[in-house]
Amino acid sequence: MARATARHILVKTESEALRLKEQIAGGADFAQLARQHSTCPSSRDGGNLGSFGPGQMVPEFDAVVFSAPVNEVQGPVKTQFGMHLVEVTSRQD
């Protein structure tokens, strides 16, 4: 069964997500930005969501996590919770 580990930054607006993604592309530390800006409780752990399988996250999130390249920041991804920047840190298909 497929498993993935990922981290994310959850913010309210697409513009904020895009601004943070630009900072990451410029060399900013993902985990540090997650601690500073993410509204998810995972922010305390740098946005780390741990390991999970298909169907354990909302569908929009799952679609990215189980298809995107590993170690590349994706997004913004819109869900019922807000706008996410997502980085898959490992995946076993």
Brief summary:
Helices cover 29% and strands 34% of the residues. With 93 residues, the chain is α+β, with helices and mostly antiparallel strands. The radius of gyration is 12 Å and the shape is globular.
Structure description:
Helix content is 29%, strand content 34%. It starts with a strand and ends with a strand. The protein contains three helices and four strands; from the N terminus they run E-H-H-E-H-E-E. It is globular and about 35 Å long. The chain has helices spanning 14-25, 30-37, 59-65; strands at 3-11, 48-52, 73-79, 82-92. The model has no long low-confidence stretch (mean pLDDT 97). It is α+β, with helices and mostly antiparallel strands and 93 residues long. Strands 2-1-4-3 form a four-stranded antiparallel β-sheet. A hairpin with a 2-residue loop joins strand 3 and strand 4 (82-92).
Q: Report the strand count.
A: 4
Overall shape: it is globular
Strand order of the largest sheet: 2-1-4-3
Order of helices and strands: EHHEHEE
Largest sheet: 4 strands, antiparallel
Mean pLDDT: 97
Helix content: 25-40%
Secondary-structure blueprint:
Blueprint: E1 3-11, H1 14-25, H2 30-37, E2 48-52, H3 59-65, E3 73-79, E4 82-92
Antiparallel strand pairs: 1-2, 1-4, 3-4
Keywords summarizing the entry:
single chain; 93 residues; alpha+beta; 4-stranded antiparallel beta sheet; 3 helices; 4 strands; 34% strand
